[in-house]
């Protein structure tokens, strides 16, 4: 991830390292034949990077460009693209504010912009909740588990297990657990607590929170494992010194451990934000984003309009909007938050 | 095009055909050579042809796949008579087939020769895209023979597919639960249905199960209210004009809101799926937890899936299972005896070899229709095959279809995926309490404007 | 007192004692164990419920959703393991995942190498193109991707799945491998060139062995990604001869055995097991790799 951080500043760690090193060409015994060397170097680069770059351009970038093209058309995705009609940015304006035609704006707002902003809101809420809920919980668990106790390695192992499960299997499992008369309902009612009147996942208000719980169950293991790895790297002397000085356990965590794993936390936050914007599989498996879109994300809305409603142009526009959001979030985060880490690293390097 | 005047003809009893049927409804109906389109001898000289065939009959519980097995025997019979034809069958689960596989295959230009077609708006899109073979002339005799049920597979006067089954929907109920609640008559009006609901509630029985989490089962309630409140021509033309300005469309939603207001459905209906598990709507009825469910003709097989599969259990289920058409509402411009229905058919890809049409004709021949009805319990379209239906509930269902003023194709199928999907979303909003009657119409209108 | 022992154990810095933290009083170990138990319960509870549900009959499940198997029903698991396509689907998933992993590791490492150790014009540009791929999940490109693969005739076979999966896994691979390769000491390279090794020779003789931990990490990520993939297989694996992968098998089983809740539970749990076993085998690698990647 270091390189990722660096890409925001436009300067790789390699560049830092190499700037002072050998120069632009490798040190070879045959320095005199520089031109031949140069050609050779480019051939080597082509051999190394070529296959990956070609695959990437063909199967990632090209479809991306095609999606951008489709997004400018009115296109029933079951029809040949030749029958599509060019409509400029209409698909985008429809999603963002219900189109430009005052006559239809009201119903387009209701039918398209409202679900769109609802999905954007859900994505944003999941990002915010990840930071406000998942992060503290993961941090607390990591701090508590960051000591030796019987069965520690097994506990670490178990906590991470949901992360490796397929969304299909995990989602199906939760569907069965959260069945209207399933075990979760029974247990909660057994404790004398209320259950959602319309069911865990489909209730218009509770559904989103149930969904967030499932997502947290699935992905919080990553945060805990990363934080634990970060904590393992905190020099023990610091903690010992502090505790000799009479600092309580909490003070040690608060003043030493948490600040020192800051970079790890910030990288996790970055991954979490991108992942939250692109969240799809789990929401889709559960019930295509919910029957009233209560936990729909931009991605489920996109696949829904593309495959269930066959509105290929509009779905492509949503895809491009999602890409722009991810890109913007990434750039913003890299420049605002992670610049500090990179700057610190650069200072260390100097 | 979506409405079908007298689709009744399709499923009505045609007494004259009964004799003909009796002769060939035995074990392997497909072997009867009289209906084979080409003679065995001449076909030997023909170029070898391979037909690919995608259908939605996959193995269900316990690996049983009656219809799939029957289709295989039909294909075998056809190739036996036409040795130059090889038929490759692929069985694909319905949702994947309709939403993913067929659209992508057609798009890619590498489509199966013969594939499942549900008629209505979807077929219209496929025709407009130039994907389907025009069968009007080659299969003119079959179109006439099958009657009005073919209408959903027609577009602007031409035929692009043929149905092999068609049925109407209505309310399935458990007779024993009705008895327990002291209900003696099948409700014929909304007022009577409301009374029955109240009686069941008083007897501590869940009156009606609905699988609203799947969307469409909930939407069908609205369709029925629309059918009662809208004049036939308004409903019929909506599939082509997409004009929803008639106030009857909003009225349908208002009636649904009122009905939901009486709390007729099970707890957490918005979280209930239609078919998976004992807590699904079908499961609730099958296990005797809920008394009624609005569903199509296929649901008897879904209910059977919840028994242990033994003959006694299935017989006991059939014994206790009743069916009545959706009750008439008071007022409204629609015909109270109109019915909603839908079916399954097949269409040929535009580049398919001519044998595709011949084979399709063979599939829906009177003998094979009767054979499929016997082997797999389908509701045949061919009038001559009506006798082959033995399940008393399905017989009743056919009669209702026969007596209906007209049979309207499922509205979502009729309107196509885009407007139909918008409609279903809006209706689920009513069920969830997040939307109202006007929203449904607005969402449909908006979707229609974008296509 | 407590600090004393800690300091002493620190003086013999075995790996074990390095991570040992005894800053709190001994009673607080119970807090730790309490938190650990809750976390484990919440994580494992649902999975155990699923596994046990597979040992019950539908009647038992309906009568008491929270009960234990009574009697234990082996039929559900037995039927799936002996009758259906479970093993075939597992094998298909395995083939696709192994091929994807091999491709990702090979091509990703190759691409990362010049990006890490050559200085050339356009290097950062290429790198930025790769990183931008992170912002573009497969979901977004699924439709144009299908049309492209169809033109190539890859729909319905392994290639249509493997090659795009490699392509979409490349960004994260390059991002992880690049700093990893950049961290190899320059002296090593210089010495190798002195010995007359070419860049390519250096890559195969030195880089590949030394980069193994990083390669294992990206390989594990690629393997899991492929193993769990749902949307691409659903769209690509069409056609009569098309193989079906395990996640598709799960939804297929669910669709075809709608009434059989216990059977669905058994199938779902069985489908989880390979990923869990793989995770157990590779656990250290995954954790080390992920944290290594994050720490750079």
Strand content of chain A: under 5%
Could you list the spans of chain C in which at least 5 consecutive residues all have pLDDT below 50? Answer: 1-24
Order of helices and strands of chain C: HHHHHHHHHHHHHHH
- Strand order, largest beta sheet of chain A: 1-2
Known CATH architecture of the largest domain in chain C: Orthogonal Bundle
How does the major sheet of chain C shape up?
Answer: none
Most extensive interface, chain pair and sizes = A-C, 125 and 118 residues
Strand content of chain C: under 5%
Low-confidence spans of chain A: pLDDT under 50, at least 5 residues?
A: 1-28
Q: Please provide the ordered H/E string of secondary-structure elements of chain A.
A: HHHEEHHHHHHHHHHHHH
Helix content of chain C: over 70%
Instruction: Write the CATH homologous superfamily of the largest domain in chain C.
Output: MetI-like
Oligomeric composition of the shown chains = heterotrimer
What class, by secondary structure content of chain A?
Answer: mainly alpha
How widely separated are the two ends of chain C? 37 Å
Can you put this structure into words, describing what you see?
The complex is a heterotrimer of chains A (350), B (451) and C (296). Chain A has 350 residues and is an all-alpha fold. Chain A has 16 helices and two strands. Chain A has helices at residues 2-9, 13-19, 34-70, 90-97, 102-145, 152-164, 167-177, 183-190, 206-232, 236-244, 249-260, 262-277, 281-287, 298-308, 312-336, 339-349; strands at residues 73-74, 85-86. Chain B folds into two domains: 13-168 and 342-390, D-Maltodextrin-Binding Protein, domain 2 (3-Layer(aba) Sandwich); 170-339 and 410-449, D-Maltodextrin-Binding Protein, domain 2, CATH 3.40.190. In chain B, the strands form three sheets. In chain B, strands 1, 2, 3, 4, 7, 12 and 13 form a seven-stranded mixed beta sheet that branches. In chain B, helix 10 packs across helix 19 (411-432). Chain C has 15 helices and no strands. Chain C has 296 residues and is an all-alpha fold.
């Amino acid at each position: 991830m270091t390189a990722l951080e660096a890409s925001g500043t436009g300067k790789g760690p390699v560049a830092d390292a190499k700037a002072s090193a050998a120069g632009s060409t490798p040190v070879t015994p045959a320095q005199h034949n520089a031109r031949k060397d140069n050609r050779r170097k480019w051939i080597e680069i082509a051999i190394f990077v070529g296959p990956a770059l070609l695959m990437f351009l063909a199967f990632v970038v090209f479809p991306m460009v095609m999606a951008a093209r489709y997004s400018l058309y009115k296109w029933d995705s079951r029809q040949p693209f030749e029958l599509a009609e060019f409509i400029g940015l209409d698909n985008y304006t429809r999603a963002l504010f219900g189109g430009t035609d005052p006559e239809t704006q009201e119903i387009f707002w209701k039918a398209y912009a409202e679900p769109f902003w609802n999905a954007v809101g859900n994505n944003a809420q999941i990002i915010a909740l990840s930071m406000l809920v998942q992060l503290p919980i993961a941090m607390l668990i990591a701090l508590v588990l960051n000591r030796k106790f019987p069965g520690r390695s097994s506990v670490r192992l178990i906590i991470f297990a949901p992360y490796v499960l397929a969304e299909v299997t995990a989602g199906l499992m939760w569907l069965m657990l959260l069945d209207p008369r399933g075990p979760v309902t029974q247990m909660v009612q057994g404790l004398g607590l209320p259950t959602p009147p319309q069911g865990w996942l489909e209730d218009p208000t509770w559904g989103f929170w149930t969904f967030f719980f499932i997502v947290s169950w699935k992905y919080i293991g990553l945060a805990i494992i990363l934080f634990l790895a970060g904590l393992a790297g905190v020099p023990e002397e610091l903690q010992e010194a502090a505790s000799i000085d009479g600092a309580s356990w909490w003070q040690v965590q608060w003043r030493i451990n948490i600040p020192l794993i800051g970079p790890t936390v910030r990288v996790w936050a970055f991954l979490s934000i991108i992942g939250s914007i692109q969240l799809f599989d789990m929401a889709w498996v559960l019930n295509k984003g919910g029957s009233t879109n209560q936990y729909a994300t931009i991605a489920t809305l996109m696949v829904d309009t593309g495959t269930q409603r066959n509105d290929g142009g509009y779905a492509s526009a949503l895809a491009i909007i999602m890409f722009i959001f991810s890109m913007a979030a990434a750039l913003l985060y890299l420049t605002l938050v992670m610049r500090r880490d990179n700057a610190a690293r650069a200072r260390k390097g100097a | 095009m979506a409405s079908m005047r007298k689709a009744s003809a399709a499923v009505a009893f045609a007494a004259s055909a009964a004799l003909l049927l009796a002769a060939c409804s035995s074990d392997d109906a497909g072997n009867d050579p009289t209906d084979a389109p080409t003679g065995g001898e001449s076909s030997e000289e023909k170029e070898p042809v391979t037909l690919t065939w995608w259908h939605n009959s996959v193995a269900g519980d316990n690996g049983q796949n009656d219809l799939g097995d029957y289709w295989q025997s039909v294909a075998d019979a056809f190739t036996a008579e036409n040795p130059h034809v090889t038929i490759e069958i692929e069985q694909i689960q319905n949702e994947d087939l309709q939403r993913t596989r067929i659209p992508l295959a057609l798009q890619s230009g590498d489509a199966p020769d013969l594939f499942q077609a549900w008629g209505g708006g979807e077929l219209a899109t496929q025709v407009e895209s130039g994907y389907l073979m025009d069968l009007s002339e080659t299969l003119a005799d079959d179109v006439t023979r099958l009657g009005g049920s073919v209408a959903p597979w027609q577009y602007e006067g031409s035929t692009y597919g043929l149905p092999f089954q068609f049925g109407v929907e209505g309310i399935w109920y458990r007779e024993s639960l009705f008895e327990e609640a002291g209900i003696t008559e099948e409700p014929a009006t909304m007022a009577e249905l409301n009374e029955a609901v109240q009686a069941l509630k008083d007897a501590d029985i869940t009156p009606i199960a609905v699988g609203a989490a799947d969307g469409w089962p909930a939407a069908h309630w609205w369709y029925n209210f629309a059918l009662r409140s809208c004049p036939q021509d308004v409903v019929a033309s909506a599939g082509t004009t997409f004009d929803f300005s008639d106030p009857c469309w909003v009225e349908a939603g208002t009636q649904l809101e009122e009905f939901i207001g009486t709390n007729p459905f099970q707890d957490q209906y918005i979280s209930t799926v239609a078919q998976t598990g004992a807590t699904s709507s079908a499961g609730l009825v099958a296990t005797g937890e809920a008394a009624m469910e609005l569903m199509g003709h296929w649901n008897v097989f879904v209910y059977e899936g919840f028994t242990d599969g033994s003959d006694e259990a299935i017989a006991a289920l059939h014994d206790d299972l009743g069916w009545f058409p959706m009750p008439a509402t008071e007022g409204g411009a629609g015909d109270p005896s109109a019915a909603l229905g839908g079916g399954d058919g097949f269409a040929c890809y535009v580049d398919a070899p001519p044998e595709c049409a011949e084979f399709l004709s063979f599939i829906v021949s009177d003998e094979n229709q009767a054979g499929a009805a016997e082997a797999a319990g389908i509701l045949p379209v061919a009038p001559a095959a009506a006798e082959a239906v033995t399940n008393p509930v399905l017989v009743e269902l056919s009669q209702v279809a026969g007596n209906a003023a007209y049979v309207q194709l499922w509205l979502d199928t009729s309107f196509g995926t885009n407007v139909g999907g918008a409609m279903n979303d809006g209706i689920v909003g009513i069920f969830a309490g997040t939307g109202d009657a006007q929203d449904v119409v607005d969402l449909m209108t908006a979707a229609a404007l974008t296509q | 007192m407590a600090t004393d022992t800690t300091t002493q154990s620190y003086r013999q810095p075995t790996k074990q004692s390095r991570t040992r933290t005894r800053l709190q009083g001994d009673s607080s170990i119970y807090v730790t164990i309490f938190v650990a138990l809750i976390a484990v319960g919440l994580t494992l509870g649902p999975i155990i419920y699923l596994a046990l549900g597979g040992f019950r009959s539908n009647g038992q499940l309906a009568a008491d959703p929270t009960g234990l198997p009574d009697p234990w029903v082996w039929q559900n698991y037995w039927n799936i393991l002996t009758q259906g396509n479970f093993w075939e689907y597992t094998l298909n998933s395995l083939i696709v995942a192994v091929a994807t992993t091999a491709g990702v590791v090979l091509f990703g490492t190759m691409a990362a190498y010049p990006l890490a150790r050559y200085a050339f014009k356009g290097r950062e540009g290429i790198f930025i193109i790769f990183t931008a791929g992170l912002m573009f999940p497969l979901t977004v490109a699924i439709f144009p991707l299908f049309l492209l693969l169809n033109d190539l005739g890859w729909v319905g076979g392994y290639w249509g799945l493997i090659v795009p999966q490699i392509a979409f896994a490349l960004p994260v691979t390059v991002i992880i491998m690049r700093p990893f390769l950049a961290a190899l000491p320059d002296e090593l390279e210089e010495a190798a060139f002195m010995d007359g090794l070419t860049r390519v020779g250096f890559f195969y003789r030195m880089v590949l062995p030394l980069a193994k931990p990083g390669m294992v990490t990206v390989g594990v990520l690629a393997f899991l990604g492929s193993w769990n993939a749902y949307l691409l297989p659903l769209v690509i694996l069409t056609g009569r001869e098309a193989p079906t992968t395990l996640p598709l098998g799960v939804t297929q089983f669910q669709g075809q055995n709608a009434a059989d809740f216990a059977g669905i539970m058994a199938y779902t749990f069985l489908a989880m097991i390979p990923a869990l076993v793989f995770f157990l085998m590779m656990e250290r690698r995954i954790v080390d790799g992920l944290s290594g990647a994050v720490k750079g």
